[in-house]
Design brief:
disordered N terminus; mainly alpha; 217 residues
Amino acid sequence: MRLIACFQFRRLVLPGLFLLLAGRGWAEEPFAFARTPGKLPKTVVPMEYSVMLVPDLERGTFRGTMRVTLDVRAAVPALVLMGLWASVGGSRMIILLAGLQDVPKELLEAAEMDGANSWTKFWKVTLPMVSPTLFFNLVLGIIFALRTFETAFITTNGGPARATWFISLHIYQSAFVTFDMGYASALSWLFMLILFVITYSQFKLSGQWVFYPGEKQ
């Protein structure tokens, strides 16, 4: 049992500590753990989760609460939570931070002089000024969410009961496993058209809530 405990410590705790201390270090950067996934390749975070989701072969169960991939209802929420954690500190967070830093301080000071409180300044000044950045992140987020592949391929491989069998997995299976290239190509074109329609709809609806400074309304 001691050998098994040391093995599980090496497989689960040490990789987590590595992620925690990555970057500038825990002592210098208290939130390094939150921003670490954005600095790692897309396959590293799913590999970490796949290690934690390895079943206990002796008992036939998952350790602790890591039995989510056995449940059809919990498989997709588990991947969503993993994707949210992996996106923290990534490129979209950097883009949002740049948008927040670009909000003119003069507008905030003018609103404060007019008697606006913190909520009013956020709702009337900050949010409209960062709406183009939010729209950009929204478009990219929906595209990347629909084309999810690495997370499901590494952690669940489409299971259980194909609950995480996304279209990217289906295209990969058709093209490189069954070698039905014609069917996979047709699916790829259909998927591209779906993404185009969704993105075009977002751009058409963006005029109702996205504010571009200097543009006539």
